[in-house]
Target: NAD kinase
Amino acid sequence: MSDRAAAARTAAQDRTVAFVAADTTEARSAYQRLTRLYGASDPERAGVIVALGGDGFMLETLHRYLDREVPIYGMNCGTIGFLMNQYGEDGLPERIARSQPVTLRPLQMKARSRDGRITEAIAINEVSLLRETRQTAKLAIRVDGKVRLRELICDGVLLSTPAGSTAYNLSAHGPILPLGSNLLALTPISAFRPRRWRGALLPETVETVFDICEPEKRPVSAVADSTEVRDVIEVSVRVDQTHRLTLLFDPEHNLEERILSEQFVI
Model:
């Protein structure tokens, strides 16, 4: 076990637990029951945060406590719950103590708009570029300064982390990436030209830059998880080396196993 994994497990075993909940009836009701059973600690001070909701709320929670790097244990009170554990009220401290940590690195997006404004944002799942009007987007792609694709005409394109590869990336027919693969998935969205280009696998060490061609005629927006920037002309994306996210999973709901199993879903 790595030092960071051991630290996450120590936090789960020895520190206080705080609960946070999505703004839904199911999640708020679960919050009330669990805080009656286990108490209500301050999430800003707790050693472990239990997130009650769905995958969207898990992403919100990871963003909210990004700088704390506190381990987060999710329990599904939503729909799919791919990033969550099964909901259960009994023996929660013991479940957290025996949970397995998974460390994720997010993406850092830097987007330059037509008005010259620079916007930076963090993405845990993916950074996506999307056309804003009826006309297709026209993009050029550079990887570590070298032009790899001079013209991509499409509805959009996205760059996904392994954790996000089963989300929007998979819906766009991108590859599923195992955790620990040290790869990013570069996936086109409804590519018109070149028709046969299906994307690429990139080392997580590279910087990928998207240049928007004809930005006034074919405006494009950039989205890093829930942060959207309109009318961009250049977007650079790299793995953020300054932040690490730790999720806790029940051994029987290991995230790596889920990602592997997704490749065999028919």
User: Anything to note?
Assistant: The chain has a mean pLDDT of 91. The two ends are 34 Å apart (CA to CA). Helices lie at 3-14, 25-38, 55-64, 92-97, 168-171, 255-262.
